Amino acid sequence: MLDLLIKNGMVVDGSGAPRFAADLGIRAGRIVQIGKITETAAETIDASDCVVAPGFVDPHTHYDAQLLWDPFATPSTLHGVTTVIGGNCGFGLAPLGEEGADYTRRMMAKVEGMPLKTLEEGIDWNWKTFGEYLDRLDGKIACNAAFLVGHCQIRRLVMGTAATGNEATPAQVEEMKALLREAITAGGIGFSTTQAHTHQDGDGNYVASRFASSEEIIALAGVCRDHEGTTLEVIVDGCLGKFTDRETDLLIDMSLAANRPINWNVMGVGATDPDRHQHQLEAGSKAKAKGARIMALTMPTIGGLKMSFLDHCALFLIPGWEPIMQLPVPERIERLRDPETRRQMDEMARDPRAGVLTALSRWGAYVIGDTVAAENEGLFGKTIEEIAKTRGQSEQDTLFDIVCADGLETGLWPLPPDDDEASWKMRAEVWRDERALIGGSDAGAHLDRMCGASYPTGFLGDIVRDRGLFPLEEAIQLMTDKPARLFGLRERGRLEEGWHADIVVFDPATIASGPIKNRTDLPGNCDRLFAASEGIRHVFVNGREIVRDGQETGAIPGQLLRSGRDTRTVTPLD
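The structure corresponding to this sequence follows.
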């Protein structure tokens, strides 16, 4: 007898092949039969009018903390995600030194937008090694999860406070390599690091890995060469604009040292600056010519990024803005009211050296969200352009006046700058490019700013069905088999007999992401942005149902994926 029979569905198996009508039989967490099935089952689900597909793989998340209080990694699993990759950008929760928990909490609160109170009250921080951290999750999660080993943690543990502002000695690099080997042996799936100036710790300093020499980073990447089923991930300043030659060389040298592909997050694609993403993709071509492999992650959806003049967000990263945005709120408001300061901030925001951040200077393209002041009542949902015309003043003055009146608490939602036919055509071309990969949600991070976790349903609903920009079979392959093959996930990413039964069943006529809304459900009674799903009927992980009709079932069949055991080696030439 089968454990589960999914009948009458339209199978899209993740390979890119055309859809076909078939039943799926599952036993002991594996797909044992695909076709017309007559065998009885303990449970039968009718998938009439639905697509049956592999569960989606999210290659860039920060669920390292959230999974400790939310085994469902919501809302990702509600949108059909069955496997998440964490430990990205050089950040993680392990290993920890004697006083590492406090520093790590404050760093993650600053750099990844996780409420500090949530990190303090939602986690007991009762581990030291990377292996002990993984053991805390093993057998206690609803989705499958794999974790990279973050550079910042091992550097801080070896160098202490000297990790900030100093290069490591050869002996310290050897200590870091030993820690990395230990973490990978325990199950870490590779190495991640950051050199980005946008990443600062809780003390306001650049994070530890920012001070690492290229030699240190390459040496650490090289550790992966000796361990089966490992990979690399990196963030550099060029991810926000264009890579310097040094950055491209660093990524190539890391890939060559490890004999592994390396991915980075996240590449924007749009007609307003097509040279940027073409330049970034060219790094992949240069890598291939040298026997290395660089993969750019790119999101298939746009928009949904909340801004604020009160709390840290991309506005704080505009070159020249930081001295003003870091002032105490009363002084910040005073400066923001000053006409000369406004002129200077406008000039700095439009400076081409700000890269992709120049898009934030489109003052008229902000939609007003939540407001506080009485004089701002009734502005919700209106654009600054509309309000400025009514008031007869400039768009920047209108925006700054509204924000100052609210004590900086105004919620601001910038309209996407590249929601046009030419941009979408470019994106469709990039999705098919061998140098790019769908992903980059940052799910589990930046909780007050964004909800990228909903991209699978947004892609299938808005882009595939409503806009007709991409075939369904290919879209599913890009979110299942392609990331699974990049990370070497064993027997996951496709619907094949003998493979793990990670499956999503959805209604193609109604699948969509719900609107992004604020929700107060984090430990410490803290808020986050959240998007429900529409059209997701069932989500199965290892053969057990974790989501039914958009709601968690309570089952936790997810597997902690460990390098080698659950992943195979992928080289740059694969």
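The longest helix spans residues 170-186.
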